[in-house]
């Protein structure tokens, strides 16, 4: 049986549309973005400013954000759960320097948009005593819920930039600060 060029083109478009629609309802890749910027501090302690963007869809799956169950997370729903978001997220991020724990100090929460949707943008400071040369990060968010979760890390110190991908296989990293 031979198919005409127009019929083949229509069939290809129909198959592509069907695949696109079936993929639209699948769970998107679970990811987060963590940006760190090392800075000095007048107090003599080391301060690293951070922003952690976490997909709202991942937070909804983990702790429930969509209060009315309509499939849309509103600013009001997110604002109602800000404390829960912070408690959940910061429970999975640890920092230490020279073998001593550093303090994570949340500074604000807002929403950031990425190509794949809305994210909770958690701004915070990591405060480490003294002037350590390296900062160790331990990141375990969402790994128990989704082993395919990844965190894209960008760390800056002055003009230097380092990047890394955090995963269940590489959940810790040491960075020069």
Give a description of the structure.
- The chain is of the alpha+beta class and 177 residues long.
- The protein has one domain.
- The protein contains four helices and ten strands.
- It has a six-stranded mixed beta sheet with strand order 5-6-2-1-8-9.
- A hairpin with a 2-residue loop joins strand 3 and strand 4.
- The longest helix has 20 residues, at 5-24.
- The radius of gyration is 21 Å and the shape is globular.
Keywords:
177 residues; alpha+beta; 4 helices; disordered N terminus
How do the strands and helices of this protein lay out in sequence?
Blueprint: H1 5-24, E1 31-39, E2 46-55, H2 56-63, H3 75-80, H4 82-90, E3 93-97, E4 100-101, E5 103-114, E6 117-128, E7 134-139, E8 150-157, E9 160-166, E10 172-176
Parallel strand pairs: 1-8
Antiparallel strand pairs: 1-2, 2-6, 3-4, 3-7, 5-6, 7-10, 8-9
DSSP helical segment count: 4
Please tell me what the overall shape is: globular
Question: How are the strands of the biggest sheet laid out side by side?
Answer: 5-6-2-1-8-9
Assembly annotation: single chain
Q: Helices and strands, in N-to-C order?
A: HEEHHHEEEEEEEE
Total tally of structural domains: 1
Taking the alpha carbons of the first and last residues, their distance comes to: 68 Å
Per DSSP E runs of 2 or more residues, the count of β-strands stands at 10
Main sheet summary: 6 strands, mixed
Q: What's this entry about, in short?
A:
The chain has 177 residues and is α+β, with helices and mostly antiparallel strands.
């Amino acid at each position: 049986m031979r198919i005409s060029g127009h019929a083949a083109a229509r069939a290809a478009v129909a198959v592509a549309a069907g695949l696109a629609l079936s993929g639209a309802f699948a769970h998107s890749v679970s990811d987060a973005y963590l940006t760190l910027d090392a800075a000095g501090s007048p107090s003599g302690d080391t301060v690293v400013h951070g922003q952690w963007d976490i997909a709202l869809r991942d937070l909804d799956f983990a702790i429930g954000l969509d209060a009315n169950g309509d499939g849309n997370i509103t600013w009001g729903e997110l604002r109602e759960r800000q404390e829960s978001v912070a408690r959940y997220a910061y429970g999975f991020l640890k920092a230490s320097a020279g073998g001593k724990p550093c303090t994570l100090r949340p500074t604000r929460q807002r929403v950031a948009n990425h190509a794949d949707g809305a994210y909770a943008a958690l701004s915070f400071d990591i405060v480490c005593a003294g002037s350590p040369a390296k900062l160790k990060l331990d990141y375990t968010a969402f790994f128990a819920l989704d082993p395919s979760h990844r965190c894209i890390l960008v760390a800056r110190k002055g003009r230097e930039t380092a990047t890394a991908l955090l995963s269940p296989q590489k959940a810790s990293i040491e960075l020069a600060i």
